[in-house]
Amino acid sequence: MPTDTRRIARALISVSDKTGLEDFARSLAAQGVELVSTGGTRAALAAAGLAVRDVSDLTGFPEMMDGRVKTLHPAVHGGLLAVRHNPEHQAAMLSHGIGSIDLLVVNLYPFEATVAAGKPYDDCVENIDIGGPAMIRAAAKNHGDVAVVVDVADYAALLADMSAHHGAVTLALRRKLAQKAYARTAAYDAAISNWLAAELNEPSPAFRAVGGALVEAMRYGENPHQTAALYRTPELRPGVVSARQIQGKQLSYNNINDTNAAFECVAEFDPARGPACVILKHANPSGVALGSTLAEAYAAALACDPVSAFGGIIAVNTKLDADAARRMIGIFTEVIIAPAVSDEALAVLATKKNLRLLVAGGLLDPRAGGLAVTAVSGGLLVQSRDNAVVDDMPLTVVTKRAPGEAELNDLRFAFKVAKHVKSNAIVYARNGATVGIGAGQMSRVDSSRIAAWKAAEAARALGLPETLAKGSVVASDAFFPFADGLLAAAEAGATAVIQPGGSVRDDEVIKAADDAGLAMVFTGHRHFRH
What we know:
Layout: E1 5-7, E2 10-15, H1 21-30, E3 34-37, H2 39-47, E4 53-54, H3 55-59, H4 74-81, H5 87-96, E5 103-107, H6 111-116, H7 121-126, H8 131-141, E6 147-149, H9 155-164, E7 168-170, H10 171-199, E8 213-217, E9 229-232, E10 244-247, H11 253-266, E11 276-281, E12 284-290, H12 294-304, E13 312-316, H13 322-328, E14 333-338, H14 343-349, E15 356-359, E16 371-376, E17 379-384, E18 396-397, H15 405-418, E19 426-429, E20 434-438, H16 444-461, E21 473-476, H17 483-492, E22 496-499, H18 506-516, E23 519-522
Helix pairs in contact: 4-8, 8-10, 12-13, 13-14, 16-17, 17-18
């Protein structure tokens, strides 16, 4: 059985990321560890004045085939895989002149970074590491005798363990490092296989791997009795994962989920067309609006549902300025996320110490492809991201009356919002602002009624004599299966409707719209969001 500690006598180091390499290797050498290395790593260590053997000294073969073959050799893998207390393994090592390798330090070729940089296909292939994962898996399998480090962040822990145990590493740390090593190679292979699937335009490969790197462990998950952690995938998509947190306490699981939803929604609105603001609560927008300024957009979004906005998430599509920031701190808000924030706005928001502020550094592209993954019992549901944008859709007028220009603008606006509202989704909008949102109901007519009720409540909160739905337009994320949902919108005061169409009762619904004097357009695209 493996002993609790294993002394490190020889280390094989081969790293593409050379952060902290010199100090780390120097500390190993100071504890009497023999250094063996390859290629650029060996050159860097030698340049630092360290005594380092080339791996070819172990194998008897030079690096060849542009470095593709250098560590795939029994002298390397035997040294990593030999079980130290197994007499047959020891005899084989002695017979073939194989020396033990007690520590492997490898971080892999930068495949993910190469893909993210948009490099050509052949460059990406050349950055697929073969020898690295093979050695990592060998060392991790034999963690009873060998320590394996795949992350520069673990250099300090390894050195501390060695210092505390007279040059040896404990079994507890070796096991922990082995788990991380297998997770790293799994995530690496996932990145490669998913990239190849995309290159092949294969939406449903026979095996689908998903992997990520830990960003942070969380205090708890959706509820206090659940554990949770946030992981980063290779996808470069601006948002909550890559954003810089300026102030406030650690984001919770629910904060991250909601902030992501808010930022995805606000990115539907091109900043070149003006400021937009989304206020979101429990994964659903409570108010969305455009404005000539961010302050104006925020005020209009807040007016849609000032009650639900309390304790919500705010996302904006342009640089957050001081005027908007002063308005936003008027009520309790959990998180604000923006592409950028002015210095004046930073000073304003700093007065609210518990407010989390995230700077995303840019907007995500709503048209970008990618995968959406949902866990189900015993499996994963994987689909392409909903990257359909209403601005790209030809709208078909199906009623006797065509919508006017102002109605068309509001219809497109409302459909963008409906894309981000849980199904069944109904969105009332007027003058570039939501005035009532119905979300997540089992029947579409109930969503219509709730949205109409919200519009009436918002009017009462503003002291207005009639519902905000009067003169609005309505968006539905899917077709109306019956005319009742559409008639509920008409009764609330809506004048035009946008919906995907495609129901067997479309003719019935169109007739009801004509009878009510509504204009209606079909998009041909559904936006279910469960």
